[in-house]
Amino acid sequence: MMMSQAARWLPLLTVASAMLAIANGSWALDHRALLFVFKPLTTLLIIAHAWPRGGDTPAARRYLLAGLWFSLLGDVALLWPQQGFVPGLVAFLIAHVLYIAAFTREQRFAAQPAALAAYALAAGTILAFLWGHIPPGLRIPVAAYVLALTAMAAQAAVVGLLTSGDAAEVRRARGLMIGGALFMASDTVLAVNRFALPVPAAGLWILATYWAAQWLIASWLKPTPPPAATSP
User: Fold this and answer.
1) Burial class (CB in 10 A: 0-12, 13-18, 19+), 75
2) Contacts 24+ apart (CB under 8 A), 134-140
3) What is the pLDDT of residues 10-65, one digit of tens each?
4) Across the strands, what pairs with 223?
5) Cα 183 to the center of its chain, rounded Å
6) 149, CA 20 to 30 Å: which among 57, 129, 178, 226?
């Protein structure tokens, strides 16, 4: 009972923490010290949302939770935008590979080739635009990251497009597909803002779409029903 009550508060707590992180890291409050609290806390709350889910798909659950933990490492690394950029990039690259492993427990990789082709076209266009702005020493790591991100978003779309069954399962799969797209949108804004040209209110758009993506990815796992009450 206590766990179910806590779960009902998680969306509100996550939104509140995300708003405080965004406000303290960008244009509103600008108290950077609080960003060090609320940025990791928001991702931890999303991990708490995912933790009791996925009991029916333990392999997917393990990979997805591992991806969330590596995302948390990336969040912490990027609290130092210069020194932490490459470690954060590597942490998120690993997270995307783990997400792909989770999603392929449900559908074969690239089972919908059109989804992979569409994301590859979008990613290639973005990377071509950014390429001349990326420092030479970062081009290979960034390209590797874009490859992993694109494959993750495309595989999330595969799951969203091919899942059938009861309405709740289809709804979670569609949410996963949206989550993959939002993750790509978040990183696109981040890359354009960092390498090419300033984006107005970049912190707001990057973090809002990022945490929405992570919440939808975590919500893909089926909720584990509470244990049946036993009579005395």
Assistant:
1) buried
2) 134/195, 138/85, 138/86
3) 999 999 999 999 988 665 455 678 889 999 999 999 999 999 999 999 999 999 99
4) 53
5) 5
6) 57
**Side chain identity at 129, as an amino acid letter?**
F
231 Rama class: left (phi>0) / alpha (psi -120 to 50) / beta = beta
Q: Specify the long-range contacts of residues 194-202, CB closer than 8 Å, at least 24 apart.
A: 194/81, 195/130, 195/133, 195/134, 196/129, 196/130, 196/133, 201/26, 201/27, 202/26
Q: Pull the structure tokens for residue 165.
A: 């069954």
Task: Name every residue whose Cβ is closer than 8 Å to that of residue 181 and which is 6 or more positions away in sequence.
Answer: 153, 156, 157, 213
Q: What does the pLDDT look like over 98-146, one tens digit per residue? A: 999 999 999 999 999 999 999 999 999 999 999 999 999 999 999 999 9
